Amino acid sequence: MKYRYTRYTGDDLEGIDLEELVSKLSEVLLASGFGSPAGDGDHPFDEDNQRTEQALHDAILDTLLNDGLLSDDAISRLLGDPANADQQPQIEQLIQRIIEQMAQQGYITRHPDLDAERRQREGPGAGDGPAPPMRFEMTDKGLDFLGYRALRDLLGSVGQSSVGRHDTRDLATGVETSGAPKTYEFGDTLNLDAGATILNAIKRIGRGAISDQGIEIEYPDLMVAQGEHQSACATVLMLDCSHSMILYGEDRFTPAKAVALALANLIRHQYPGDTLRVVLFHDSAEEIPLRQLARVRVGPYYTNTREGLRLARRLLERQQCDMRQIVMITDGKPSALTRPDGRIYRNAFGLDPWVIAETFAEVAHCRKAGILINTFMLAQDYELVSFVKRVAAICHGKAYFTTPHTLGRYVLMDYLDKKTRTVH
């Protein structure tokens, strides 16, 4: 489904551009667990306090005060007189109207926190406490909008104004003509080049070709126009959601989710023949629908790269496309492995010889299946660099060593880069 975005003009909201505000709130809307206790939840879909309306309220307040959406005079007026404690500041009313407008325009949905309500009913003094807190969820429209803004910002930063389909060095008999005509062969699209066909007939017939009877065209005279062969691409985006993605004082997972949304928006609008699937890998691996990506947070502690690659390969083997690729975003070394009986072998120190050998074996399976692996590493430890370079060497893919700030630019530019094939 495609959405059209226009500036909202119903409630002026102090002149605030709601779309710009939603874009600036992307970090809280795509919250991944950064800032939560390290042991708070051990599954990618566990709930956390970053989905409460209070968290959204605080993020909106911070954005209004610090991101230049309001003038200094407007902020002073909305905050009111600090000495008057009995009067509710107007900025609180404004924030509530903004949340209501975000829901009315379809960016979020609001619902009560059922777990908190159940605990309140079962606890002492049931029914006497305050109303249970509200939670929010991103809608499909909200995700599409964040993907659109992320794509626009990322492409704008590298000077890209427009994109098209994946070009190759091959020529095909398609509708758009850009190459020299060729003799028609059985199976070609019958996109006749009339001029070249008539010229062939004239050369064959000779001087008497032009007569009152017209020019007789025979099968060998047929010439068809050639256009650039544009290939379809099936992509599986592998996102590492182990706990290391939010440790060490840096949130690496939320930027990775924003990149996934931008890539999905690019494919939906510019490459409609391409497909994108999303696989999370941690202690194990699972595929998730793109619409659930906003809810995902970091999960189990370990990194089962082999299981993620295996699942991605199985998904791609079902796709009948010219190009099949895995885009893997990670920041850690493989530290887990799924045994044949389904149990998980874990080694917290990473680079376990057995785990590494099995992971390289799966990379080789991907290469035999004709699947390219492009790895985007968000850390640059010596052991990690060696591991990623070996993966790239085995599958003839690419390795990028980047940061959360430049990740999106690398991923999108790699996707937009021409996929070429040499014909001998």
Oligomer: single chain
User: Which radius of gyration do the C-alpha atoms yield?
Assistant: 28 Å
Helix content: 25-40%
Q: How large is the share of residues in beta strands?
A: 15-25%
Number of helices: 13
Task: Describe the strand arrangement of the main beta sheet, using strand numbers.
Answer: 8-7-6-9-12-13
Q: What is the total tally of β strands?
A: 13
What distance lies between the first and last C-alpha atoms, to the nearest angstrom?
Answer: 42 Å
Shape designation: extended
What would the average pLDDT be, to the nearest integer?
A: 79
Sheet with the most strands? 6 strands, mixed
Spans where pLDDT lies below 50 across 5 or more residues: 35-41, 158-178, 418-424
Q: From the helix content, strand content and strand pairing, which structural class follows?
A: alpha/beta
Give the SSE order as H and E letters: HHHHHEHEHEEHEEHEEHEEEHEHEH
Structure in words:
34% of the residues are buried. A hairpin with a 5-residue loop joins strand 10 and strand 11 (344-346). Helix content is 37%, strand content 17%. The protein is extended and about 105 Å long. The chain is of the alpha/beta class. Helix 11 (353-368) packs parallel to helix 12.
